[in-house]
Specification:
Blueprint lengths: L1 H8 L11 H20 L4 H14 L3 H9 L14 H15 L4 H9 L10 E2 L4 E5 L10 E2 H6 L7 E5 L4 E2 L15 H4 L15 H21 L9 H22 L3 H12 L1 H8 L6 H16 L8 H4 L16 H8 L12 H7 L10 H7 L6 H11 L4 H9 L4 H13 L1 H10 L3 H16 L2 H11 L1 H14 L2 E3 L11 E3 L4 H4 L4 H11 L2 H9 L1 H12 L7 E2 L13 H20 L8 H21 L10 E2 L4 H16 L11 H22 L8 H11 L8 H14 L2 H11 L19 H20 L8 H15 L4 H7 L15 H10 E4 L13 E4 L1 H6 L3 H7 L3 H17 L11 E2 L18 H15 L7 H16 L14 H4 L10 H4 L4 E9 L3 H5 L2 H6 L11 E2 L3 H16 L3 H4 L17 E10 L1 H13 L14 H4 L6 E2 L3 H15 L1 H12 L12 H39 L24 E2 L6 E2 L7 E10 L28 H15 L2 H7 L7 E12 H13 L13 E2 L6 E2 ...
Parallel strand pairs: 13-14
Antiparallel strand pairs: 1-5, 2-3, 2-4, 6-7, 8-9, 10-11, 12-16, 13-15, 17-18, 19-20, 19-23, 21-22, 24-25, 24-26, 26-27, 27-28, 28-31, 29-30
Helix pairs in contact: 1-3, 2-3, 2-5, 3-9, 5-6, 5-9, 9-10, 9-11, 9-18, 10-19, 21-22, 21-24, 22-26, 23-27, 24-28, 26-29, 28-30, 29-31, 30-31, 31-34, 32-34, 32-36, 35-49, 36-44, 37-39, 37-41, 43-44, 43-51, 44-53, 51-53, 53-54, 59-65, 60-62, 61-62, 61-64, 61-69, 64-65, 65-67, 65-69, 66-67, ...
């Protein structure tokens, strides 16, 4: 081969394959350049051949196959190495050849220059974040990439961000899909004009090289595909695809070069000649031949034929002629259908299978065969798509094919190819194991093609797109049909889809249906569909597959053992496959000109329905106890009728069938309504929960307007055209309450249990009310409908904006007009509702912004009928009524219990006037009369609800009365004339006054009526002579209905005798076991009017309560002011009805007056039988028990409430005792505690100690304080980063390590406090319990496995009383309570004496009332709680010493715990004590107890008396300049000590309880040190000049009497002492100037000193408050220092406040000031001689920390999202799937990311330990919610970003713009600072370190 090629080239030898690879590389460019030159000559045949030969060799497909099959690469061109080398080599060649010898990158750039980028066309895959703007979109599928969206102007538009499910492409620049105003800046200019023409030679090589390259790719695909028996395994396909990755990527890169390259590719892909030459397999090349054979095998195995070989494969195909059955539809085919087994095996084995299973041809002519089975490939594009489908749509291929779409010519070619392969796609999809992924990829492609109307129209015309789609859908569903069991199980010929099959359960049909809906949204396509009769027939056949699917049979005996969940598949299928295409078609039938379309649909729909009735053998009675919710054919029919009347002005009667058909049509929808009532009456309870699920789904907002609404409308149409008596009796029969409608007080119901009667009767009446008052399809405009829907939803509950959008049933077809969020939606919303902004209760639940109905809506528009129709849960109806009642009470419109208001309806469309005849038919009047009578007589099973509905129906009848009575006088003789019927006419107005005297009823023999009757009449009357008896009325609903049915049938068909089977069906005859029925005659003598008046008396409880209002004011009758809307209860309803009746007829008015004149006898009191009495007693007892229970509960609740107030209130200023202590009398000295478990009170003793319920948690909140007020911002660009070096924790860390470098370790650990990070915070709810009770409580929790949310093994529990989370118990120290402490009395000892006492007390080891040696229970508990405290925080936050485990560590840790708790309390009080005694911690402080526990343990470690800092503070030692520097590190100089730490050490070293004067003494001594430190720091901070000035000024005053209390003197002395060392020396002057440029005035110095000392004073005052119970005084901020100083006893009492306050006056030196200062300064001097810099740094202590804050967040969430959702993680450098950011420090982490896992801890958990000592607050970027990690638990906190309607958008599902909600963020920060996450958030779960 090579030789041949060489010869062809002539002299120029191309590089031989034998050459080493390097040689090749050198030569590639040269060869390419040479070939390009050769091809540019006019006669380029030689060049072309040479190129062909070269490509033949380089791109030969033999090599890689060996790789794919055997794995080892056959060494080939260039002696490539591993399997991939050859391919890479080939790619290199291609790149070189394309570039024609130049560099490939330059070539790319050159081609890009010619790109007329009018379209963006960026293709993305699943999970990409894109945007959709409804304002700019023409097609609902329009989408934009983020870049184009942000570059365009969409302010004020209705847009949202979304995560792509299936992938998509950017439509920017495509004016077919979106309006040009929305294009971004890049794609606005139609730039084709100014782009120069592409030079011919630039792309010349591409035209030669690419065909071979693509052919090579196709060969790979052919070779790689092996057809195993059960379909290729996933693995094999993926292997081939991985090998091809570089090739496909190369093609993808080509498409990105822009328009010029795309058009070359289009040429290559669609050129048929090229394809034929290369792939026909006719050449002598064996390889190509083999590959062609594989291709044919693949085609055959797919069940497809290749047209030329018809003879080989087509044998089993039936000849074309046989398929012309189709037009007759099912009729001819039904015979064969019954026997077909719906197994699926034959699906796999290709074409022969299809031949075997052609059960029935469902499409006309012969096109069916060709659509399903023939594929002929004529171009590369077609075969590429074929393999793309075969390989189940690999993502790379899909992206390549879509990237080409901006090329118009390609778009058309590709769309046609796609349509050509449509059937094949469906087959592959059905077999696929990964049908979900595949569905998404299919839709990814099809949505790009079919959203474009122009394109869809073209393909419809040229490629029969509609035929193909409908046929393919039909074939798809044919594979899962089963015999329908509806109605007539044995003989039914109807088939339905089986909802249990994967095809339906997994929604596999979704891509095809979605394409179909998409193309039907284009008017031109939909018109073709509606005009094509064959298509409509086929489509109706398709719809009939769903008619009656998922049949439910009522279980009567035992509970069904397996609840099938297939019902959701059925509802989804009907909605997606039937309803949505229907809405699509309806949207094009809006105008008169489209009448023809409606007629077509209605005609074929009725034909399909007729076939269906025949197939299921339906005559007139539905089979009992079964129901299907799926009647799509009925619904198509109903919706097209509605459209016809509403928009097309069609005459309704012209599209209605005959009466018989109407009667059949009515049965099934009515059956559904009755079944709904049965399900709600719990009659289907044995069918399990799923049947309730169906009943709910049927009315649920996404389904209701495709299901229940058309059903009700169809029933309304039937009712308006059928005989009203027949309709009404059918309703009561279907609802099974016929037997109940008797005048007798007892009856027998043969079909219904007594317990269900009442709710079924309510159901029947409610249904009638809905039927008669609903106007959704009977004349309401779209806006009125929207308003009614919205009012109904808002009345049930306040709603958020998004839930309203979700609950308002919108037309499922996107092009229908009312889009969610559209203009009309917003305007209606603002008209009917008020917005309630979100509110925040501290510690309460997060509320969202809600809409609530305006007052006038409650007043005039609340419509209970609409509410009942739309409620999924029955409780919502009650909720609406409760809200309505509350409104009436509040607005003082009606005080009592109102009834649902009566609302006037919008007028009916003239076509439906017949509906009102239902209100004027005798049957209904008899039912109403009977029910009124029964209610008046107190028969059982009737409710107020029944009465309410009865009155509602009467009122409706009066509102819609027919013509005025013609002659009133004529009907006077009525009762005499007509014997056999109850009422003279059918008009309600006149029937109301008709008196009925006697009624004959059938009653059980046991009934009371029988006894009263004269026996003679009973026996003489035999059953047959009913009608002849002139005196009494008889009525049987069933008989009446039979009679009417017969009449209708006889009228409508001559051969009635065959149709009607005489059905005296057995189920109406009474079962034998029942008592015999006899006949009794009741004397009634009432009319409807008289019954109403008596009811009025009964309801009001007064005799003669009704007085006709017109007797006072005759005007009322002439123009009755009856409002459209009336509030009130039953009494007002009766009055309204009587008034209407009187105003409509003079006779009625007269009769009402007559009835009122007769004084009505009182209603006889009910006789109470013994049995009833028993039940009454029972009731009474129950009632009493209930009241007792209420009382107890109320009492408990009030106790709990008072407790909650004390425990939970974060901001209640209670000037209360710090402990829940019950002692009030001063003489008692022992504190008494209540145990919340055993309820006993008593003191805490050593052997039975009591403890406080506490929660210990590690906290790093203190460490987050910074020294500036403004919180740091969350970084949202690469430049902004947060460094933690200025936090409190970092500063303290640096200080400790500095001290540890130069000083003795044990001394360093006493000089500072730790616990800024990981300090232990102790909080209590204030409840106490016995420690032994607590232990048994924990045992019971351990055995109770139900409790989740906290882990008992870790000691966690909830307080038994208030359920607050806790994890330990802090023992209460026995002894006196805080207030009446005998040690508090002040003594008059001098400070020197006190100093000595303190020293002695500290020296005594363990001088403790409880001796440590005796192991009491108390000391054990104290030890165990100390262990708990230690274990609360991690080791790294406890161990700071250089020698691990040294006792100094524990010592430091213990006093630091006290420090942490004091500092945190200070922060909770806002950082100062100005608010005084209003202790926020109130009763919740446990510092006193904590101090006892800590003190006990501190005393175990005695400090050597030499080292005790107390000595250094209060005694002068002889100075020894040579103090052992040699042997070891020195101690920390006292001026470097942290004074607050010293305070805690001193106090905890004292025996407890401490005496107040000792405390004051310690404070005074420490204050002198503190003040000296302040002076020293000041001296370091100021400049050299200032220093010398002060030094001299002070020296002058040194001799004055008050020298020790004057800061000038002391300052000058400190300066002079310190300047002896090198402290002030080595420093550049410029640096100091920088530190403090301000000029010092006496005032500013005083302020400086006070600020330095304040933190110490605050902590000390708090400590004093807790130890001695002193109140904290409140004060102004500026006087805080002086107030605290006097409160602590630092200020002499005789101190006058006139002249300005000076801090130095608080000093009280225990030893001469100047001596002790000299001694302190000497220590520093000796240190600074060596380390002046550090010495200075250590003198400066940062004491003024501001309050901690979380990071400040940006206003708009999008700024965070855009920066972080693409940001890579710093650890693993990938973009995390769930990115999160810490709101405390701004660190970016991967949530749940396994990539960043360390020792089984995921990154968030790890970070929460490092940053917050176990508490982490993270913002989840992709969800906008905040997650809290607390130790081993976590909870979702909620979101601090809300949309414009005040709602969260968790998971960014709605994608609306979100804005920060400052209040919520404050609440979050507050919970963080106050450590109350555990108490306030309730839903915690364990995270198992996996976050």
């Amino acid at each position: 081969m090579a030789a041949a090629a060489a010869a062809a080239v002539g002299g120029q030898q191309p590089s031989q394959p034998e050459l080493p690879a390097s040689g090749l590389a050198l030569d590639k460019a040269a060869t390419a350049a040479h070939l390009k030159a050769a091809l540019s000559r006019p006669d380029n045949r030689a060049g072309a051949e040479e190129l062909q030969a070269l490509l033949e060799r380089v791109l030969s497909a033999e090599r890689p196959l060996a790789a794919a099959a055997g794995g080892e690469d056959a060494a080939a061109a260039g002696g490539g190495g591993g399997p991939g080398a050859a391919e890479e080599e080939a790619l290199e060649w291609c790149k070189c050849l394309l570039a024609g010898g130049g560099g490939y990158d330059e070539f790319c750039a050159a081609v890009r220059a010619y790109d007329p980028a009018a379209l963006c066309g960026l293709v993305w895959t699943a999970n990409f974040v894109a945007y959709r703007c409804r304002t700019c979109g023409i097609s609902p599928c329009m989408s934009l990439c983020a870049e184009c969206f942000h570059q365009g102007d969409h302010t004020g538009h209705d847009f949202n961000m979304f995560r792509s499910q299936a992938g998509g492409a950017c439509d920017c620049g495509d004016s077919n899909v979106m309006r040009e105003s929305g294009f971004c800046k890049r794609h606005q200019i139609k730039s084709s004009s100014n782009i120069p023409c592409v030079p011919k030679d630039l792309l010349m090589m591409s035209e030669f090289v690419l065909p071979r390259f693509i052919f090579c790719l196709i060969q790979y695909l052919r070779e790689g595909y092996n057809e195993p028996a059960d379909g290729p395994s996933e693995k094999d396909l993926n292997k081939v695809l991985q090998l091809l990755e570089p090739q496909i990527s190369f093609l993808e890169d080509l498409t990105k070069m822009g328009g010029a390259m795309r058009s070359v590719l289009t040429q290559v892909l669609t050129n048929q000649q090229n394809y034929k030459d290369l792939t026909s397999g006719l050449g002598e090349n064996a390889c190509v031949k083999k590959s062609h054979e594989k291709y044919l095998i693949a085609l055959k195995s797919s069940g497809l034929t290749y047209p030329e070989e018809k003879l080989v494969y087509g044998v089993q195909e039936p000849s074309a002629g046989t398929s012309s059955l189709a037009v007759q539809g099912f009729v001819g085919a039904t015979g064969t259908l019954g026997q077909v087994d719906s197994s699926d095996e034959d699906d796999q084995d290709g074409s022969q299978g299809l031949g075997k299973r052609k059960r029935v041809k469902l499409s006309s002519g012969t096109k069916d065969q060709s659509i399903m089975d023939v594929l002929k490939h004529k171009s590369f594009l077609e075969e590429l798509l074929f393999w793309t489908i075969k390989y189940e749509f690999p993502q790379k291929m899909v992206t390549f094919l879509l990237n080409m779409l901006p090329d118009q010519e390609y778009k058309v070619a590709f769309t046609k190819t796609f349509v050509q392969h449509y059937a094949f796609i469906m087959k592959t999809l059905k077999k696929s194991h990964e049908s979900d992924t595949m569905s998404n990829r299919i839709v990814h492609i099809s949505v790009q093609l079919f959203s474009n109307e122009e394109l869809a129209r073209q393909v419809t015309e040229e490629c029969q797109l509609l035929d193909i789609m409908v046929t393919v859908l039909l074939y798809m569903m044919e594979s899962c049909l089963i015999k329908s069991e509806l109605q007539d199980e044995e003989n039914s010929l109807h088939v339905v889809v089986n909802c249990g099959e994967a095809l339906l359960k997994n929604n596999t049909y979704w891509p095809l249906v979605s394409d179909f809906i998409n193309i039907l949204s284009h008017q031109s396509v939909a018109k073709r569909f509606l005009e094509d009769h064959g298509l409509l027939v086929t489509w109706m056949n398709f719809v009939s597959f769903f008619q009656g699917m998922n049949l439910n049979k009522r279980e009567l005996n035992e509970h069904v053992e397996f609840e099938s969940q297939t019902y959701y598949a059925a509802f989804a299928a009907e909605l997606e496959a039937c309803a949505q295409p229907m809405w699509g078609l309806l949207s094009h039938c809006k105008v008169r000109e489209t009448q023809e379309y409606t007629r077509n649909v209605v005609r074929y729909c009725l034909e399909a329905l007729q076939d269906w009735f025949d197939a299921i053998n339906f005559v007139d009675e539905p089979a009992p106890n079964q129901v299907t919710f799926h009647l799509p054919l009925h619904r198509y029919y109903a919706m097209f009728l509605s459209k016809a009347v509403k928009c097309q002005e069609l005459d309704l009667d012209s599209v209605l069938p005959d009466q018989e058909m109407l009667m059949k049509l009515m049965i099934h929808p009515l059956q559904i309504q009755a079944s709904l009532a049965e399900i709600h009456s719990n009659m289907w309870v044995r069918n399990g929960l799923q049947i309730k699920g169906q009943a709910m789904t049927y009315v649920q907002s996404h389904f209701c307007n495709s299901m229940i609404d058309p059903d009700i409308y169809l029933l309304q149409v039937c009712a308006s055209r059928l005989d009203p008596d027949y309709f009404i009796s059918s309703v009561f029969e279907r609802f099974k309450v016929v037997d109940l409608l008797t005048m007798a007080s007892q009856h027998q119901n043969t079909v219904l249990d007594a317990e269900h009667e009442r709710s079924m009767l309510e159901g029947a009446l409610t249904f009638l009310v809905i039927l008669l008052s609903l106007r959704l399809h009977l004349g309401m405009s779209d806006d009125e409908i929207l308003r009614a829907e919205m009012v109904a939803q808002l009345c049930m509950n306040d709603r958020t904006h998004s839930s309203l959008l979700d609950l308002i049933p919108e037309n499922p077809n996107p092009k229908s007009g009312i889009i969610p969020g559209s203009y009309s939606f917003e305007s209606v919303l603002s008209a009917v509702a008020d917005f309630k902004a979100p509110v925040f209760e501290p510690g309460g639940s997060m509320q969202q912004g809600m809409y609530t109905p305006k007052a006038e809506v409650w007043d005039q528009e609340f419509d209970p009928v609409m509410v009942i129709l739309r409620t999924v849960y029955r409780r919502d109806v009650q909720s609406a009524m409760d809200r309505y009642t509350a409104f009436l009470k509040q607005s003082r419109k009606f005080p009592g219990n109102p009834w649902p208001p009566y609302k006037k309806r919008t007028s009916l469309h003239p076509s439906y006037k017949g509906l009102m005849r239902l209100l004027h038919c005798k049957t209904l009047h008899i039912v109403l009369f009977t029910l009124l009578y029964k209610i008046l007589m107190d028969h059982q099973n009737l409710s107020e609800h029944v009465l309410c509905m009865v009155l509602y129906l009467i009122e409706l009848g009066l509102e819609n009365s027919a013509e005025e009575e013609s002659d009133e006088e004529a009907s006077v003789g009525g009762p005499e004339r007509c014997h056999d019927s109850w009422f003279p006419g059918s008009n309600l107005v006149s029937n109301m006054r008709h008196f009925i005297n006697y009624v004959r009823v059938r009653v059980p023999e046991t009934a009371p009526e029988v006894k009263r009757d004269s026996p003679a009449s009973t026996s003489s009357d035999n059953l047959g002579s009913f009608q002849n008896s002139g005196t009494a009325q008889v009525f049987s609903l069933v008989a009446e209905r039979r009679k009417k049915f017969q009449e209708i049938i006889n009228r409508s068909s001559s051969e009635a005798n065959q149709v009607v089977r005489p059905k005296t069906s057995s189920k109406w005859s009474a079962p034998g076991s029942a008592p015999q029925l006899t006949t009794a005659i009741l004397e009634i003598k009432e009319s409807i009017l008289s019954l109403l008046i008596k009811l009025h008396h009964k309801l009001s409880g007064k005799q003669n309560s009704y007085y006709p209002p017109w007797l006072d004011d005759i005007e009322i009758l002439i123009q009755p002011e009856i409002p459209k809307y009336s509030h009130g209860d039953g009494i007002t309803a009766v009055e309204r009805i009587l008034l209407k009746a009187a105003s409509q007829s003079r006779m009625n008015k007269r009769i009402i007056e007559e009835i009122c004149r007769k004084v009505t006898p009182p209603v006889p009191p009910k006789k109470v039988t013994a049995a009833e009495k028993k039940t009454l007693d029972k009731e009474e007892r129950r009632q009493k028990a209930r009241e007792r229970q209420q009382k107890l509960l109320a009492e408990f609740a009030s106790r709990q409430k008072s407790f909650m107030e004390t425990a939970m209130d974060v901001d209640s200023p209670e000037n209360d005792i710090p402990m829940e202590i019950t002692t009030a009398e001063p003489q008692v000295s022992e504190a008494v505690y209540d145990c919340v478990i055993c309820g006993q009170s008593g003191p805490s003793s050593e052997d039975r100690p009591t403890g406080l319920v506490v929660l210990l948690q590690a906290s790093s909140v203190l460490g987050q304080c910074r020294d500036n007020v403004e919180p740091k911002k969350l970084p949202i660009t690469e430049e902004e980063q947060i460094y933690p070096w200025d936090t409190c924790a970092a500063v303290h860390d640096v200080r400790l390590s500095l001290l540890q470098r130069y000083f003795k370790d044990s001394s360093c650990l006493l000089a500072v406090s730790i616990g800024w990070e990981g300090g232990v915070y102790v909080q209590t709810c204030g409840h106490t319990l016995h420690i032994d009770c607590h232990k048994s409580y924990m045992e019971s929790l351990r055995n109770d496995q139900v409790l989740q949310g906290f882990s008992v093994d870790k000691g966690e529990f909830t307080c038994p009383l208030c359920r607050q989370f806790a994890n330990s118990v802090l023992p209460c120290y026995p002894g006196s309570s805080v207030e009446n402490n005998p040690w508090q009395r002040p003594s008059n000892k001098s400070i020197q004496d006190l100093v000595k006492e303190v020293e002695e007390l500290q020296g005594r080891p363990g001088a403790f009332p409880v001796s440590i040696s005796s192991e009491t229970n108390l000391s054990k508990e104290m030890e165990s709680v100390m262990k708990d405290i230690k274990n609360t925080t991690q080791k790294k936050y406890r161990d700071y010493s250089k020698t691990p485990g040294s006792p100094d560590n524990d010592f430091l840790f213990m006093y630091s715990v006290a420090r942490t708790n004091l500092e945190l309390e200070l922060i909770h009080r806002g950082g100062n004590l100005c608010s005084g005694g209003a202790s926020t911690a109130g009763k919740r402080s446990c510092l006193n107890q904590l101090f006892h526990v800590l003190a006990l343990h501190m005393r175990l470690y005695s400090i050597d008396s030499e080292y005790n800092p107390w000595r250094k503070l209060t005694q002068l030692e002889e100075m020894n300049p040579q103090l052992g520097y040699e042997e070891q590190q020195p101690e920390v100089p006292i001026l470097y000590h942290d004074v607050t730490s010293l305070l805690l050490i001193q106090i905890l070293m004292m025996p407890q309880p401490l005496r107040k004067d000792h405390f004051t003494c310690i404070v005074k001594v420490l204050f002198t040190l503190l003040y000296t430190q302040a002076l020293a720091e000041l001296s370091v901070k100021c400049s050299e000049e200032d220093r010398s000035a002060w030094k001299h000024a002070g020296a002058l005053k040194k001799s004055t009497c008050d020298a020790e209390k004057s800061y000038e003197v002391l300052l000058s002395f400190v300066i002079s002492e310190l300047s002896k060392g090198k402290l002030y020396h080595e420093e550049g002057t410029q640096e100091c100037a920088m530190v403090n440029p301000i000029a010092w005035s006496p005032e500013s110095m005083e302020k400086y000193l006070q600020d330095f000392c304040l933190p110490f004073l605050r902590i000390t005052s708090l400590l004093q408050h807790h130890l001695f119970g002193d109140d904290l005084p409140s004060c102004q901020e500026e006087e805080e220092f002086s107030v605290l100083a006097s409160c602590l006893g630092l200020l002499p009492t005789f101190y006058q406040t006139e002249h300005p306050f000076i801090s130095a006056s608080c000093l009280d030196w225990p030893v001469p000031a100047f001596d002790i200062i000299t001694q302190w300064c000497f220590e520093i001097k000796s240190f600074t001689e060596r380390h002046a810099e550090q010495g200075k740094a250590l003198l400066i202590q940062e004491s003024k920390w501001k309050l901690p804050h979380l990071l400040q967040l940006p206003e708009n969430y999008n700024t965070i999202f855009q920066y972080y959702h693409r940001k890579t993680c710093s650890v693993c450098t990938k973009v995390p799937k769930d990115p999160a950011v810490c709101l405390v420090c701004g660190t970016f982490v991967c949530l749940k990311g396994l990539c960043c896992k360390q020792q089984s801890y995921c990154e968030c958990v790890l970070h929460s330990q490092n940053c917050g000592a176990g508490t982490g607050i993270f913002l989840l970027i992709n969800a906008s919610v905040i997650i809290i990690i607390r130790g081993h638990r976590f909870c979702l906190w909620g979101s601090v970003y809300l949309d414009a309607h005040g709602e969260e958008d968790r998971d960014l599902r709605r994608g609306k713009p979100l804005y920060i909600c400052k209040e919520r963020y404050k609440v979050l920060e507050q919970q963080w600072i106050s450590h109350t996450f555990d108490h306030i958030n309730k839903r915690w779960g364990p995270h198992y370190n996996g976050l």
